[in-house]
Amino acid sequence: MTAPQSTSSVTVVGLGPMGIALAETLLRQGHSLTVWNRTPEKADGLVAHGAHRAASITEAISASEVILLCLKDYDTIYDIFDAADHALRGSVLVNLNSGTPTEAHAAAAWAAKTGAAYLDGAIMVPPFLVGNPESVFLYSGPRQIFDQHHAVLATLGDPRYLGADTGLAVLYNTALLDLMYATMNGFLHAAALVGSANVAAETFAELALDWFVPFVVTPSLVEQAPNLDKANYPGDFGTMEMNLNALDHITRTSVEQGIQPDLPQLMRAFGERATAKGYRTNNYLAVFEIFKQSSGA
Ligand SMILES: NC(=O)c1ccc[n+]([C@@H]2O[C@H](COP(=O)([O-])OP(=O)(O)OC[C@H]3O[C@@H](n4cnc5c(N)ncnc54)[C@H](OP(=O)(O)O)[C@@H]3O)[C@@H](O)[C@H]2O)c1
Q1: 0.85 exceeded by pTM
Q2: Ligand 1 pocket test target in 38, 42, 94, 172 with most atoms within 8 Å of CB
Q3: 133-138 mean pLDDT
Q4: Which numbered atom of ligand 1 lies nearest the CA of 15?
Q5: DSSP assignments along 172-215, one per residue
Q6: Which of 86, 99, 167, 209 holds its CA 20 to 30 A away from the CA of 239?
Q7: pLDDT band for position 295 (50/70/90)?
Q8: Where does ligand 1 bind, in terms of residues with CB under 6 Å?
Q9: Atom of ligand 1 lying closest to residue 19 CA
């Protein structure tokens, strides 16, 4: 792990598993650390390693140049800070809670009223990977705040600035989690299919995850991503009709093998909707047009 270029005074508010990981990393990298948590005893281990436990949220605010928030949700911010928002004028808040873009925008508006600078963020790794230089942390909001505190943010991982729209960090966060759940469910269903013939998931993983995903799925999507931006779905190498047949085979095989067919059926239904919208001769990625609509109509 590389040492930060400079050290700062940092306050961490919120000492759940993630807040503790952030605090431990900051301490290890030599930053001057103040912590505050609703349940103060959770700071005991950190205090033993040199952190200062603020006696009040007002003290936690005034102790540091940067205040990192790592709480259950956005509402918790107001539970904690509303009684002390007079102390926030001139502070720098970096919020790493999970939430929605609307909640992020509301938090930025609230911070502006208190006179604090506000950067929104999202953590893309579990606590044990905090501090690894390859662990991605997403940020959005004023670029100047990001640049000014880059050294502290780089202590935690690889800080990626996404843009001035405050909601972008949590939007990317949920989009990546959306991808994660869809991918995991795809693997689980596929593993259940081969599992119906007593193939171990571990055996299947060698072909599916070591070869098929990196060598077929990823390059195909990388190549097609620019086409998605142009709503261009060339059917040269396979039409929607061909893909509907493939999804039909997956559904029928699932039924034959006695496993749940709902997932391929759902994916086929999206393809059918795209067909009804005129994408029969395009490729399957034209379902993007269905996903882009709020009702999926
Ligand atoms: N854990 C992960 O793997 C992970 C990964 C990425 C992102 N995140 C995000 O990081 C944030 C923190 O997650 P976490 O895993 O550390 O635990 P968490 O259970 O989401 O949050 C725990 C923290 O919130 C505080 N809290 C909850 N309700 C409160 C209230 N009404 N008033 C004051 N404080 C309150 C807790 O205080 P007490 O200690 O007093 O209960 C504790 O400090 C979340 O937004 C989460 O989505 C977590």
Answers
A1: yes
A2: 38
A3: 98
A4: 43
A5: HHHHHHHHHHHHHHHHHHHHHHHHTTT--HHHHHHHIIIIIIII
A6: 209
A7: confident
A8: 14-19, 37-39, 42, 70-72, 76, 79-80, 97-98, 123, 126-127
A9: 16
